[in-house]
Amino acid sequence: KARAALGGAVMLSDAVERNRVLTELDKTLLVEAAAGTGKTSLIAGRVVMLMLRGAPPRSIAAITFTELAASELSLRIREYATQLLAGEIPKVLRGAVSLELLNDKRQVLSAAIDAFDEMTACTIHAFCQQIIMAYAVETGLDPGSQMMDAPTADAMFESASAVGASIISTPDRR
Asked: Of 33, 69, 86, 100, whose CB count within 10 A is highest?
C-alpha cells in the first residue's frame, strides 16, 4: 500500500517497519509479507547494513523458504554492496545509508565483499541440513546423506503410504 506524504511524495504505508528492518540491527527480526512486496530486497539491504556495521559475513545467516528466493537474495546482497562501493546508494537503502556513512565504512564493506562466500544465504531446509550434517555423528545420520527434492519425497511418501495401507488391510493369518 502507498499513501501520499506531504509534498506529494508517495510513501509506503509500512515505511516505518521497513526502516526498522534496515536500522534496528541489534535485533533478530522476522520479515513476512505477500509475494512481490519487496522482502528479498529488504532482507538483502539488511544484510548489507550488517556488513557496513562490521559484521563478518561468516556471522550472517539470511534464511528464506524457496531456492529461487535464496539465489536472488545472494545476488542482491552482492549487487547492493558493489553499488555502495561504487558510490551509488541502492533504492532500498536510501534513508538508511548516507554518503558520509558509506565513505567511513568503505574499507569494512570491501573486506566483507572479499569474504562474501562465507555468508549463509539459503533456504530453511538447507540451513537445517547444514546444522545436521555438522553434527552427523551425534545425530546418528550418514554424513553423506542428502536432502530429497520434492518429487522424490512425494514418491517415497506415496510408496510408504501404499505399504502401510496394504499391511493394515491384510488380515492376520496364523
From this structure: 69
Amino acid identity, residue 70? A
The C-alpha cell that represents 109 in the structure block: 564493506
**Region for 142 from its dihedrals, namely left if φ exceeds 0, alpha if ψ lies in -120 to 50, beta otherwise:** beta
In this prediction, what percent of the chain has a pLDDT beyond 70? 87
**CA angle (132 as vertex; 111, 66 as ends), nearest 5:** 65
SS3 148: coil
d(CA 158, CA 22): 44
Kind of pairing between the strands at 61-64 and 2-4: unpaired
CA angle 28, 43, 93 (to 5 degrees): 110
| CA distances (Å), origin 19, targets 43, 48, 102 | 11, 14, 17
Half-sphere exposure of 54 (CA within 13 A, CB side): 3
3-state secondary structure of 83: helix
Nearest to 100 by CA among 52, 43, 50: 52
State residue 90 phi and psi, 5-degree precision.
Answer: -60, 150
